[in-house]
Design a protein that fits this description.
Layout lengths: L6 E3 L3 H12 L4 E3 L6 E5 L3 H11 L8 E3 L3 H7 L4 H10 L4 E6 L8 H4 L4 E5 L4 H10 L3 E2 L14 H8 L5 E3 L11 E6 L2 E6 L5 H8 L26 E4 L8 E4 L7 E2 L6 H22 L3 E4 L7 H13 L3
Helix pairs in contact: 1-6, 9-10
The chain binds threonylcarbamoyladenylate and magnesium ion (MG).
C-alpha cells in the first residue's frame, strides 16, 4: 500500500501507455469502463490480484471479472458454448459479463476465480479501457472500484474518495455512460441464467436468446458477490413511502426533491446518474445530519430493474 495519493492519468496516449505499464509492473489502476470504474490489475499476477482484495476489503471467496480486448483472448481463457457465442456476437463489446467454464491453460491467478471452475469474462466497450487492454496485452481482473459493500464509482472522484492511496493511479475519462454494472449471465445446459441485473436489459437479452431463467431472487446469492447488503451509503436508505421530516429525498420524474435521478422519468438517465446521486445524497445527509435517504419508486422495467436491484441492496439491513 503506497502512502501517497494516486497518480491521475489523462485519457490520452500518454495516460493509456502509463496505465498499461503500471499493470505490467503489478500495480493497481482504476480504469473507466462504460458501466462503472474498475479497480484493475494483471489477472495472471497473484500479488497484484491479492492487492485488489486488500484494497477493497473484499472477501477472498468473491471472484473477480476478467476483462479482455478481443474474442481471441476470450477463447484462450474460457470454453464458449453455442449460447455464449450468440450472446457475445450480439452484445460484446458492451455491458455484459459471461460466466463460462475456465480452461486449465488460461494462466489466470487462482485468486481471480476464487477457486471456482468458471470464470466471469467481459469485453468492455469503453474506448479508453479497450486501448489500455490492447496496450497491456493480457487479461485484466477488475471489480468495481469501491470499498467492498459500498457505493460503486462512476467518476474518478468517487474512486479517490473511496480508495485513495491504495490505488497507484486513476485514469480519469469523466463520468461512465451506462452507470450501473454489467449484466451477468451464465449460459448453462439447462438454459440461460441471469446472475445479476445490469446495464444490458433483460428485454434485450430475451430478444436474442429467448427467455432467461428467473434466478435473480432478492436475498438469494447466485454470483458470490451478490450479498444482500451492498452499494450502501453511510446513512440508511428507504425506498418509496412518504418522506419523513429531515430525510434527504431522491426523486424520479418531476416534483420537488433534494436530488433527482431524472426530471423526465428517463430510466437510461437515471441509471447513468444513480451512483453519483447516491454519493451526493450521502454527503448531503452528513452535512444536514439527516438519518435517512428516501428514494422515490422506480418502474421495474428495462434499466429500472438494475436500478431497483442496487437500491434494494443499498436499503438492505447491514
Ligand atoms: O460492470 C462491471 O461488471 C464492473 C466493471 C468494472 O467491469 N465490474 C464489477 O465487478 O461489477 P464486481 O467485482 O463488483 O462484481 C463482479 C460480480 C460479483 O458479484 C462476483 O461474485 C461475480 O461477478 N462473479 C465473478 N466471477 C464469478 C463466477 N465465476 N461465477 C459467478 N459469479 C461470479
Ligand atoms: Mg461491485
Amino acid at each position: 500500500m503506497s502512502a501517497k495519493a494516486p497518480t491521475l492519468l489523462a485519457p490520452d496516449r500518454d495516460g493509456i501507455v502509463k496505465a498499461a505499464r503500471l499493470l505490467a509492473d503489478g500495480g493497481l489502476v482504476a480504469l473507466p469502463s462504460e458501466t462503472v470504474y474498475g479497480l484493475a490489475a494483471d489477472a495472471r499476477n497473484d500479488r497484484a490480484v491479492a492487492r485488489i482484495y486488500e484494497a477493497k476489503g473484499r472477501p477472498s471467496f468473491n471472484p473477480l471479472i476478467v476483462h479482455v480486448a478481443d474474442m481471441a483472448a476470450v477463447e484462450r481463457i474460457a470454453e464458449m458454448p453455442g449460447a455464449a457465442r450468440r450472446l457475445a456476437a450480439a452484445f460484446w463489446p458492451g455491458p455484459m459479463t459471461l460466466v463460462l467454464p475456465l480452461r486449465a491453460t488460461a494462466g489466470l491467478s487462482p485468486l481471480v476465480t476464487a477457486g471456482l471452475p468458471t470464470v466471469a469474462l467481459r469485453l468492455p466497450a469503453h474506448p479508453v479501457m479497450r486501448a489500455v487492454l490492447a496496450a497491456f496485452g493480457g487479461p485484466v481482473a477488475a471489480p468495481s472500484a469501491n470499498p467492498s459493500g459500498r457505493i460503486s464509482a462512476t467518476r474518478a472522484e468517487h474512486v479517490i474518495a473511496g480508495l485513495g492511496a491504495q490505488v497507484d493511479a486513476v485514469l480519469d475519462a469523466g463520468p461512465c455512460a451506462v452507470g450501473v454494472e454489467s449484466t451477468i449471465l451464465a449460459p448453462a445446459p439447462g438454459g440461460l441464467r441471469l446472475l445479476r441485473e445490469g446495464g444490458l436489459t433483460r428485454e434485450a437479452i430475451t430478444n436474442v436468446a429467448g427467455p432467461v431463467q428467473e434466478d435473480v431472487t432478492p436475498g438469494k446469492v447466485e454470483a458470490p458477490g451478490q450479498l444482500s447488503s451492498h452499494y450502501a451509503p453511510e446513512v440508511a436508505v428507504r425506498l418509496g413511502g412518504a418522506a419523513q421530516p429531515g430525510d434527504i429525498t431522491v426523486g424520479f420524474g418531476p416534483g420537488a426533491a433534494d436530488l433527482t435521478l431524472s426530471e423526465t422519468g428517463d430510466l437510461v438517465e437515471a441509471a447513468t446518474r444513480l451512483f453519483d446521486v447516491l454519493h451526493a445524497a450521502d454527503r448531503l445527509a452528513a452535512d444536514r445530519q439527516a438519518r435517512a435517504i428516501r428514494v422515490s419508486d422506480i418502474p421495474d422495467e428495462g434499466l429500472g430493474r438494475a436500478i431497483n436491484d442496487r437500491l434494494r441492496r443499498a436499503a438492505a439491513p447491514r
